[in-house]
Write a structure and sequence with these properties.
The structure holds two protein chains of two kinds.
Chain A (H helix, E strand, L loop, with lengths): L7 H8 L16 H15 L6 E5 L6 H12 L3 E5 L15 E3 L2 H5 L4 E4 L5 H6 L4 H8 L14 E3 L12 H4 L6 H19 L5
Parallel strand pairs in A: 1-2, 1-4, 2-3, 4-5
Helix pairs in contact in A: 2-3, 2-8
Chain B lengths: L8 E4 L2 E4 L4 E4 L2 E4 L2 E3 L10 E4 L4 E4 L1 E6 L12 H11 L1 E6 L10 H14 L3 E6 L13 H6 L4 E3 L8 H12 L5 E3 L4 H4 L4 E2 L2 H6 L3 E2 L1 H18 L3 E3 L5 H12 L4 E5 L1 H5 L21 H12 L5 E2 L8 H4 L16 H10 L6 H8 L1 H7 L14 E11 L18 E11 L2 E5 L1 H4 L1
Parallel strand pairs in B: 1-6, 2-7, 8-9, 9-10, 10-11, 11-12, 12-15, 13-14, 15-16, 16-17
Antiparallel strand pairs in B: 1-4, 2-3, 4-5, 7-18, 18-19, 19-20
Classes of the chains: A alpha/beta, B alpha/beta.
Chain lengths: ~200, ~425
């Protein structure tokens, strides 16, 4: 179930007692299967989650992907840093053990994984920051930023990418990008979720 | 519900608490022809004597913030069901907010509400007129005409006049008619789209929040206007710590402002939203524990002189939706006494006389009406409280037409035992308690 309102799957699961509901993204609340596939991809490439430094960059405020990733990563022992325009990066996340970083360079320089979020709505582009040009300049990942990013660092993105805004094409299609593997793993992870909730192991 | 038309009574054995007259003692209360009288006046009168030992007798409670939904949303509440709920909750007077459909922003509409109240009202209903035409915040409502047909107060509740100059003129203009101005304090730009309090829980849940600053800004605005004009302004449903601090500052400096707290802001916080239950969605929203404690502190030190329910009925159909799409508001008339007795009196934050003052003296002072006391010669509006009875709130027993409350199943201590309006017993559970 994918829904624009936060908590809609929780609401429906209360109303439909004998039915499994898989949350496929609800408002800005959560997107558990995306987090599972992101975690799967990180583990596949890095061999572990515990102790990894993961930087999530961009519109955290409106991102269900960020919230589910944060819960999953913290639970499995990763160190999570979030960064982006201050209007989109709530400092309340510090209370659950996330590092909030105001400077992109500090956020990514020790990262094992950088997960970039899509800048979404038109309104956000004018009310939360001055425009996509300025966003790309201060928060986008481009060949310049790769100078202080380790060659071992994975570049991830839940898609679809605003090329040239949060991520340059050269990096998105470059050797450190695992974006296509995320898509492939997404299929397998979601098949596994459906397999399990369908009671196939009972 | 026992209905006795008789209006001669001797209420015996109860602890009588009347904050207006500084009374707190066991004594008898005499009611003759619906009026509070002294013992001498009862000579030869055929009156029923009620033994209320262990109970508390207080002036009838006043709720200055109620949505009766008639006309317009009679599927959610009517004057009849809303005032039945009021009687069962111990309220003998309710102030009906003007955001009905059509809006109570003209004299004819006020007359209509008064006729409904006369015909269907179980308790006294005082209509509240709008501040602006259609609650649109653009043009002043016909305040003089509203006053001449007897509105008790003015409010745009549910909305807030954003234009400070218009608000200034409304406040000044209304002062000629000596009408209390009540404001739902909300900066709409800051609160826009917010479905809960902005803070830790809204960030974690990914829901759009209303920051406390949306309320604090308008409370500040109103304090400045009250100081500038010398006119009184009442702040409805104060919910945030800084709002209480601002009011405290203003009152200490002689600025004519007052504030009310709701039982839900006294009892609950935004942590409840994590279950996405729309019975926790109201405006202003449930805020943090720190804000909740600030509201209680405001009641303790007298910054907040009134408890009002913001009784806001909605049908199950309207509320049984996604949290984002549900309307704001919960019912409160039948839960206010049990919840505030439990949260404030039994937890030691307020004495019983202090609590009763928030339901009687505070509202009566705001409305400038001769209600809310047991003074000799006044109408016998009386609320009888059973202060120590332990019970579980059960929505299936409610008289309200709606059931949108977060307090179903709440373990309470204290409740209303009987309610008298003009000496007529309009609600009683005294028989079942015996
Ligand atoms: Zn309101």
């Amino acid at each position: 179930m994918r829904h624009s309102a936060a908590g809609a799957p929780n609401f429906l699961s209360r109303e439909l007692a004998d039915c499994s509901i898989v949350n496929a993204g609800d408002g800005a609340h959560s997107h558990p299967t995306q987090a599972l596939l992101d975690l799967f991809t990180m583990r596949e490439k890095k061999g572990r989650i515990e102790g990894l430094n993961v930087a999530i960059i961009g519109d955290i405020l409106h991102s269900r992907v960020a919230r589910s990733n944060i819960w999953g990563l913290l639970k499995l022992g990763a160190n999570v840093t979030i960064s982006g325009p201050a209007t989109l990066v709530p400092k309340e996340f510090e209370k659950i053990g996330v590092r909030v970083c105001r400077n992109l360079k500090d956020a990514v320089k020790d990262a094992d994984v950088i997960n970039l979020l899509r800048i979404q709505h038109e309104r956000q582009r004018t009310e939360y920051f001055p425009g996509t040009g300025e966003y790309a300049k201060f928060y986008g990942i481009n060949p310049d930023s790769m100078k202080y990013i380790s060659p071992e660092t994975l570049i991830m993105h839940p898609g679809p990418i605003n090329r040239g805004v949060e991520l340059d094409s050269a990096i998105a299609d470059g050797p450190q990008s695992v974006i296509l593997e995320q898509v492939t793993n997404g299929l397998a992870v979601r098949m596994a979720v459906l397999f399990l909730v369908a009671g196939a192991l009972k | 519900m026992m209905m006795k038309k008789q209006n001669n009574w001797i209420l015996s054995g109860a602890r009588v608490i009347d904050p207006v007259n500084n009374i707190d003692e066991v004594r008898k209360v005499y009611i003759k022809d619906g009026i509070i009288v002294d013992e001498a006046a009862m000579q030869g009168v055929d009156a029923e004597e009620l033994d209320l030992t262990g109970k508390v007798v207080a002036p009838g409670f006043i709720d200055v913030h109620v949505h009766l939904r008639q006309p317009g949303k009679v599927d959610a509440e009517t004057v009849r069901t809303g005032t039945q709920a009021a009687a069962a909750g111990g309220f003998t007077t309710v102030v009906a907010m003007p955001n009905t459909s059509p809006v109570t922003d003209n004299a004819a509409q006020v007359q209509y509400i008064r006729e409904l109240a006369e015909r269907d009202g179980i308790v006294h209903v005082l209509p509240c007129g709008a501040l602006s035409k259609g609650l649109a915040g653009e043009e002043m409502a016909p305040i003089g005409s509203l006053a001449s047909v007897g509105v008790a107060a003015l409010s745009d509740d549910g909305k807030c006049v954003q234009n400070h100059e218009l608000m200034r003129h409304i406040v000044e203009y209304a002062s000629n008619f000596d009408l209390p101005i009540m404001d739902h304090c909300e900066n709409t730009a800051l609160a826009a789209g917010g479905v809960m309090h902005e803070g830790y829980w809204s960030v974690l849940l990914g829901m759009k929040g209303q920051p406390s600053a949306a309320e604090e800004l308008m409370i500040s605005r109103n304090i400045m206007l009250a100081r500038m004009t010398g006119c009184r302004i009442h702040m409805q449903h104060v919910s945030a710590r800084e709002s209480v601090a601002l009011l405290r500052y203003a009152r200490a400096n002689g600025i004519p402002v007052t504030g009310e707290a709701t039982p839900h802001h006294i009892a609950l916080t935004d942590v409840e939203i994590k279950r996405f239950d729309t019975n926790y969605k109201m405006n202003p929203p449930l805020r943090s524990e720190d804000d909740r404690m600030a509201v209680i502190e405001g009641l303790q030190d007298g910054t907040l002189t009134i408890i009002a329910t913001d009784h806001a009925p909605h049908t199950q159909t309207a509320k049984q939706v996604e949290f984002d799409y549900a309307p704001f508001g919960i019912i409160g008339l039948e839960t206010a006494v049990p919840v505030t007795m439990t949260e404030l009196v039994h937890k030691g934050y307020l004495t019983l006389p202090q609590l009763i003052s928030k339901f009687t003296k505070g509202p009566a002072e705001l409305l400038k009406r001769p209600i809310g006391s047991l003074s000799l010669g006044s109408a016998a509006d009386v609320t009888v409280i059973d202060p120590d009875v332990e019970h579980t709130i059960d929505i299936s027993t409610f008289y309200s037409k709606s059931r949108n409350t977060p307090f179903d199943g709440y373990q309470a201590k204290g409740r209303t035992a009987a309610t008298f309006v003009d000496g007529v017993c309009v609600y009683s559970r005294l028989d079942e308690d015996r």
